[in-house]
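Why do we care about 3D structure at all? Because function follows from shape, and shape follows, mostly, from sequence. That is the central idea of this module. The next example makes it concrete: a single protein chain, its amino acid sequence, and then its structure expressed as tokens.
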Amino acid sequence: MSEEIVPFRIDIPQAQLDDLRERLTRTRWPEPLPGDDWDTGVPTAWLKDLAEYWRDGYDWRAAEERINQFPQFMTEIDGQNIYFLHVRSPEPGAFPLILTHGWPGSIVEFLDVIGPLTDPAAHGGDPADAFDVVIPALPGFGFSGPTSDPGWDGPRIARAWVELMRRLGYTRFGAQGGDIGATVSPAVGRAAPDQVAGVHVNGGPAVLPPLPLSQEELAELSELERDRVARVETFMQVEHGYIVIQATRPQTIAYGLNDSPVGQLAWIMDKFREWTHPRTALPDAVLDRDVLLTNASIYWFTGTAGSAAYVGYAQASGWGAKPADSGVPTGAIVFAHDVGVRRYAEQENTITHWVDVADRGGHFAALEEPELLVGDIREFFRKLR
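And the structure:
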């Protein structure tokens, strides 16, 4: 197997941009359901407006140029092409950190935190907190897709990340992530506990409470923790359907998402509305619509809706098997939308740092609350360098 690392630049052919515009123009829109509100899915009126902006106002070339300002590379690990950003700090002795996104996110999640993490002095911080950052796209996602074989579960991805860091010359490093990244990052610690100085996650490590909880156990929880348990219960009742579909029929859903940009956009926007904070706000009121569309465009141009669903949710070994505690110091910042509960996270992780943010932030922490996230990452790793 070649260990070659090849420079990479995004350059979507103009024919693909023209095709996207034509498909958006020819969208066969469904009639709105009664009320046309979020209770039945993405409202038709709102999505039409966003799709028209994608067609006539959004500038992919500007987004492409922004991403291409960062050094990007491609390498093959375990038979899979892995695309990643590798941004070195101008500070000598910067600490290496690998950042992992989730679904339906991408490397776009981290673009606003690269500068503060790598060059804190230029962003009002302490140069001693500088990081070299490595930001890979998950196998099957974006430019790391599609996948060529099964089995890309959390532990296998973690082993690939350890190998990637080895190829880059890093023998000691940290790991950070949210969503799927909150599963992969602790797994990186388990794959190489002697090399991983610490693991930091937003949302909490991917450990859910063992539902249903007894009244005795509920009574032991704080009011904040009981609220999080209640929201997990609600999620399992009214929002779990997308996991069932992607975990059992990723190829079936892929036909529609890969053929219709509006279908792909709706599938992604549904989650950005549900998982940003506050939930009642429109996604483009919380985040810039150019950012939302850059993220969706990466899925569209790479045709990875199916492989991302497959890797994220349909693995035979599953993401839910209870792993052993690696002993690696683990920190978490849990924003208002998220549902992490420390006592359950401690069953699989050595938690040394835990911050609850009850009134701000959602699931896409690097996009929604970049300053708070960066500050917490700096604080956590300051004593582990």
